[in-house]
Write a structure and sequence with these properties.
Blueprint: E1 3-7, H1 11-22, E2 26-31, H2 37-41, E3 44-47, H3 53-63, E4 67-69, H4 77-87, H5 94-99, H6 103-112, E5 120-123, H7 126-136, E6 140-144, E7 154-156, H8 161-171, E8 178-182, E9 187-196, E10 199-209, E11 221-224, H9 230-246, E12 252-261, E13 264-271, H10 279-287, H11 291-299, H12 306-309, E14 317-321, E15 332-337, H13 341-345, E16 349-354, E17 361-362, E18 373-378, H14 382-393, E19 398-400
Parallel strand pairs: 1-2, 1-4, 2-3
Antiparallel strand pairs: 5-8, 6-7, 6-8, 9-10, 9-12, 10-11, 11-14, 12-13, 14-18, 15-17, 15-19, 16-18
């Protein structure tokens, strides 16, 4: 039996750890939080801050692991790459991990090879930020250079907002770096792709819908397939392949995010991991691809045949996350969580879950963490799937104080 070190053991990681064990591997989970849900699902648990590469490497050596992997957490990707490289195990390498988790480095590499993206500038100080906004113009997006989950993300309309928000953006960056980008209105797309020995196979492109207001960066609905079609869809898939190649990912799962505007397609960013936000479930239900099995095989250096990567079918679906207004949940402290029987019985619903506990607080949507569950529904068309997911989400029974 092969042993795999799983870096990070939160809610999203737990399901992946359970699947890795179903596939026949022994799992060693690493997380600094002793109560992390994934640790209970692992064969062995180690309470270690996974940002501490030497400590994580020591755990890997002690358990004589055959591979290292993570899902969902961008901040774990460089750790996984470093540990694998130091132990001579399969991995994406430190350089590629840096390019695919540090937004400034990513932007510069994409610019070097002419991949379309928003105008950008790196900033560390208020003076640099003001210079940056003069260069890229308003509206602009301010965000940390190396943090995900929409933490420290702000939409800027005026120059005086820089002084209000810059400190918060820099504080979310482990290296006190931020980036200012030109805001382009348009349709956001989430992609999934698999790189094998340098060849990139696009799997899915789905529309990523976002709420209005301060939560503008949160994907609260995913709709597959994308509403792009014909030449526009072909150009988007080509852009995915070009971006993954440019960032040097030869073997791994890529999570590109694109923006389709009236003046063209742009790359927002590309992650080197199975994403959170139930995107692995989207791949399973929409095209019949098990991303966890693909990631496990790649972590162990095993062959990934076409039969595991090429889509087996195409099923329109929608994922509706459970959020506070204008979503179906009411802000407040949770006092009761009802069963999901009615939701799961709704026509077309294939999955539903809540990320809630009694006493927790449901907040207005601002961060990815404000998504408190989801409903996945299928349909004859993506529009029917979305209508079903929206209707089923309204049946969720949660009471708050």
């Amino acid at each position: 039996m092969k042993t795999v070190l799983f870096v990070g053991a939160g809610r999203h990681q737990r399901r992946a750890i359970e699947r890795v064990r179903e596939l026949g591997a022994r799992v060693v989970g690493v997380d600094r939080n002793a109560d992390a849900p994934g640790l209970a699902a692992a064969d062995a648990a180690e309470i270690v801050d996974f940002a501490d590469v030497p400590a994580v490497t020591a755990v890997a050596r002690r358990h004589e692991v055959d591979g290292v992997l993570t899902v969902s957490a961008d901040r774990a990707v460089p750790v996984v790459a470093a540990v694998a490289e130091d132990l001579g195990l399969p991995g994406i390498g430190r350089e590629t991990a840096h390019l695919m988790t540090h937004k400034v480095a990513m932007r510069r590499r994409l610019a070097d090879v002419g991949v379309a993206q928003p105008e950008f500038a790196a900033v560390r100080t208020l003076h640099e930020a003001r210079t940056a906004t003069r260069a890229v113009g308003f509206p602009a997006v301010l965000k940390p250079a190396n943090t995900g989950g929409q933490r420290g993300l702000f939409l800027l309309q005026y120059d005086d907002e820089l002084e209000t928000h810059l400190h918060a953006a820099l504080a979310e960056s482990p290296t006190q770096e931020a980036i200012v980008e030109r805001y382009h209105d348009g349709l956001e797309l989430n992609g999934l792709a698999v790189a094998r020995d340098g060849y990139v196979t696009p799997l899915t492109l789905s529309d990523r819908l976002r709420p209005p207001g301060v939560g503008f960066g949160v994907g609260w609905i995913h709709v597959y397939p994308t509403t792009l079609f014909g030449d526009a869809l072909a150009r988007a898939e080509d852009l995915v392949v070009r971006a993954v190649h440019a960032l040097g990912l030869r073997d791994g799962i890529a999570f590109p995010q694109l923006l389709a505007s009236p003046d063209g397609l742009r790359v927002i960013e590309v992650a080197a991991r199975i994403p959170g936000g139930e995107m692995a479930r989207l791949a399973a239900h929409a095209v019949g691809v098990d991303l966890i099995e693909v990631a496990l095989r790649q972590a162990l250096g095993e062959e990934v045949p076409d039969s595991l990567v090429l889509p087996r079918f195409q099923q329109p679906l929608a994922i509706r996350f459970l959020t506070a207004e204008p979503g179906p949940l009411t802000p407040g402290t949770v006092r009761r969580i009802g069963a999901l029987d009615k939701v799961l019985a709704f026509p077309g619903v294939v999955e539903a879950d809540t990320y809630l506990a009694i006493g927790e607080t449901i907040n207005p949507v601002r961060l990815d963490g404000d998504r408190r569950g989801y409903v996945i529904a299928t349909g004859e068309t993506n529009l029917e799937a979305l209508e079903r997911a929206e209707a089923a989400a309204r049946l969720v029974d949660v009471e708050v104080w």
